[in-house]
Amino acid sequence: MNERIDELLYRNLQEVFGEGDAKRRRAAIEELYTEDCVLYAPPGVFVGHDALDKFSGELRATHPHFAYSPIGEAQALHNAGRLAWGSGPRGEAPHYTGIDVIIVRDGKIAALYVFLDSMPS
């Protein structure tokens, strides 16, 4: 289970939130998330594939040239995992950082909690 949780964390970062192609992003959401998934993010709570797809696509459109990079290693514990990450233009220091925490059910992400760190000054 720990390997699957690590895989879900890394793939979510790149294939959902880092993906600019809408069709590939939607395919990843369907593969990685339960149908009744819940995303808890600073702007609100988003339930289901459609809501997650809309949120992640709109977020990606605000900064299409940014890349998401893991900071450190993913950690898994029972049915949960966490991964710290940074986002910014490739090759530059992150413009912002955060931590994703996931709850896994039946090998898929059932809940994602996104914690954002303070923006650099």
Question: Main traits of this protein?
Answer:
single chain, 121 residues, alpha+beta, Nuclear Transport Factor 2, Chain: A, six-stranded mixed sheet, 3 helices, 35% helix, globular
What does this structure look like?
Helices cover 35% and strands 45% of the residues. The radius of gyration is 13 Å and the shape is globular. A hairpin with a 6-residue loop joins β4 and β5 (96-105). The protein has a single domain, classed as Nuclear Transport Factor 2, Chain: A, CATH 3.10.450.50. The model has no long low-confidence stretch (mean pLDDT 95). The protein has helices spanning 2-17, 22-32, 48-62; strands spanning 33-41, 44-47, 66-77, 80-89, 96-105, 108-116. A 6-stranded mixed beta sheet has the order 2-1-6-5-4-3. The chain is built from 3 helices and 6 strands; from the N terminus they run ααββαββββ. It has 121 residues and is of the alpha+beta class. This is Nuclear transport factor 2 family protein. It comes from Paraburkholderia pallida.
Short description:
The chain has 121 residues and is an alpha+beta fold. The chain has helices at 2-17, 22-32, 48-62, and strands spanning 33-41, 44-47, 66-77, 80-89, 96-105, 108-116. Helices cover 35% and strands 45% of the residues.
